[in-house]
Amino acid sequence: MTGKTFSNKVVFISGASSGIGAATAIEFTKEGANVVINGRNETKLKNIYKQCESFGKKPLIIKADISKDEEAKAAIDETIKTFGKLDVLVNNAGFSRSGSILDGNLIASYDEIMATNVRGAMHLTVLAAPHLIKTKGNIINISSVAATAVPLLPQFTPYCVSKAALDHFTRCSALELSKHGIRVNAISPGPVTTDFHINAGLEDLMADRTIPTALNRVSESIEIADIILFLASDKAKGITGSNYLSDNGFLLVH
């Protein structure tokens, strides 16, 4: 694996069972990293395991719900026990649920979403920070254009709020951890071809809607994975507290 960008680096990816997280796991594996794939769906994680293994390295599967403190701690502990260090944390786990003021389900959806999208990412950051200090590692948080765009439907309100919070946490943690040599950045994708809406139970709401972008296209997960790898690499050693936008011009037309 010599000569590859992330040879012998240890990368923890939450929400790695599909979509952006899965693509990121595969790309890091191609570049020689020891990858930890975390998620709640063990069947899907095993599928990603096989894809990574085909590139010559076996990832560590950790089935855990990062919204639960004891499971998040066990996940980081197992990573350190297995590999002895941590170089990169990718806070990718996130989801949406329908929730709006007038539907009467806003608070329940908000509590559920924030537990993973924000609190889970914050807790993993707290747990990982002592190990990242030792390696001068870095953190990439996967946010969304939803953090700044008015939602297409009111049912997306709690998800949008969660991503706005994650953006601010990125800036705050970047400042606090910079004195220890840790870089923290975010990426805000626009529409991406994933099973996001299906997993969120929102396929009926979105079935007859198109999501226009200035470039008239939707991104693939690997496009976001490529940005993650760039930000995690030494090519981005001067970048921290940033939020990389990859939205095909979504915000230009909304």
Automatic annotation (TrEMBL):
For this protein, the record's SMART domains field holds: PKS_KR
Q: Which InterPro entries is this protein grouped with? A: KR_dom, NAD(P)-bd_dom_sf, SDR_fam
| Record domain Ketoreductase: where | 9-190
Q: Which domain of life is it from?
A: Eukaryota
Name of this protein: 3-oxoacyl-[acyl-carrier-protein] reductase FabG
